[in-house]
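Sequence in, structure out.
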Amino acid sequence: MRGELRQQGRQLDSLLIVVPGVIWGASFLFIAEGLQAVAPMGVTVVRIALGFATLSLVPSARRPILPDDRVKTAALGVLWLAFPLSMFPFAERHVSSALAGMLNGATPLFAALVASLLAREAPSSRVAVGLTVGLAGAILIALPGLAGLDATRGQAPGVLMILAALVSYAFAYSLARPLQQRNGSLPVVWRALGWAFVLTVPLGGPAIARAHWTAASLGSLIALGVLGTGVAYAVLATAAGRLGATRASSNNFIIPVVSLLLGVLVRHEQVSAISIAGASVCLLGAWLIRPVAARNQAGRERLTSPSTT
């Protein structure tokens, strides 16, 4: 009986890691499909609104936060949500959903680099190696689009928008960590989503009014909002509380793979071999920095991992 319970527990732990990774990996496909019906800011507003509404159904998300943290949570709504979630739809007018997802795999690297800069501490030798390897991989992913090679010509604006979003994510995680430690993950995310909606609806509202919906585009945006901006956060918060944020952040290794497979198999996108190789190198770099994070943070983390789109 105990063996069966342990096996069921391990299966649950795996699901708590895999499910957010698959959802966020698919989100790039959902964005691409949504863009067939509505302008980029419309995509952003719909996903934020649905994500906020979904998390509103989770009682723990509505718990109060400390009054001194309200302004910082509003800032988080800009850095973590309003700005980066606006960049990805604009970027996907220039780059494939597969490439967008692979570039997103560099998020942990940017987060580790910015955290070191803000702390004014040089990273350990292993982290430095991981950052070097990972950033080299990110350069390889972006290189074909920036250089305008063959089928990737014209992708440079999209690549730069995604890199801007990743930098914003990196600063957001440094801001989010203490907020989530003091208040819990979901109450902070829920309020940040509320602020992000207030900030984006003036620009996205008119785009929604002019949208030309199809069943595929509407279903994709519902999935993007309910699953990618709602359910995935709730599942990951559960994983972080059960496993620690370091183990929960393993979903970062799933996201680029899922986005690549869906982009190629569903949307028949062409992806440069250089970019695919770069994604592998980038994930290796993220893996190299992860064991150090595990030793430094084990047993005291209860926050969402540096991923999401």
